[in-house]
Amino acid sequence: MAAKLLPKVERNRMNTRRFLTSEILDIFEDEMAELNERYKMTRPYRFSSDETLLQAMVGLHDDKHRPQLYSLYENGYAEIIHDHHAIGHGARHAKNILRTLFKRDISKERALEIGVHILLEVAEVDAMVDAFPQIAILDMDQKGKSRISILNEDKKGKFQIASEVMKPIKEKVQGVEQKRAAIFHAFMDGQTIKLDKAKEKKNVPKETYENASSKKRKQFGVSEKN
To answer: Beta strands of the chain (E only): which ranges?
Structure first.
């Protein structure tokens, strides 16, 4: 459905010579509403009412070059995303993690780490989500000019599913949930939790909830009470 929507938006944009952010957003809404009308509201019905044609995020820079994200629904309505949002398979699980980690004053680097961490965790519980994050960043350069960076593009501009940029980030966030599981069980068992030691540990082995034994917990910076 996205492959149908994007060319229609581009043609409409060029034919009507509408380039302002508010105008482009209107085009997205109009074209999506038209697709919804054609495929779900008009006989013969191509899709049932229970199926979702498309839910997407639209990234734009407003008239003052500030980056903005909108959630576009299949009925042709778009609303601005003020803080954070997740759509698609695994969205509910992603939101649960995101709301505990998100802060409005986080840096771009920390936002990347949170995003990669969430996608990797969702990939563990949802077969429709892979463990190869594809990330686009909307921001402004040092001169205040709008830009969009696709982190999965190589030096020649070719898109790659497995990005080299993601490797160090994935390695950095690997094992975060295993640490959390070990600390949780240690706390419930009345053990002393030394978070400063846990932060110092870099190479953390993968452990399941069941394997978070007293001996293993020490590897996560957790010690027992005497």
So the answer is: 56-61, 67-72, 78-80, 136-140, 146-150, 192-193, 222-223
Peptide bond before residue 205 is cis, with ω within 30 degrees of 0: no
Of the three residues 137, 152, 172, the one that is the final residue of a domain is 172
151 found inside a domain: yes
Q: Are 103 and 130 in a shared domain? A: yes
For residue 64, the enclosing domain spans: 2-80
Backbone angles phi, psi at 199, to 5 degrees: -70, -30
The span from the CA of 60 to the CA of 68, in Å, is 5
Q: What is the pLDDT of residues 15-74, one digit of tens each?
A: 999 888 889 999 999 999 999 999 999 999 999 888 999 999 999 988 888 889 999 999
What is the pTM for the complete model shown?
0.73
Same domain, 74 and 7: yes
CB 60 within 8 A of CB 21: yes
What single-letter amino acid sits at 165? V
CB 156 within 8 A of CB 125: no
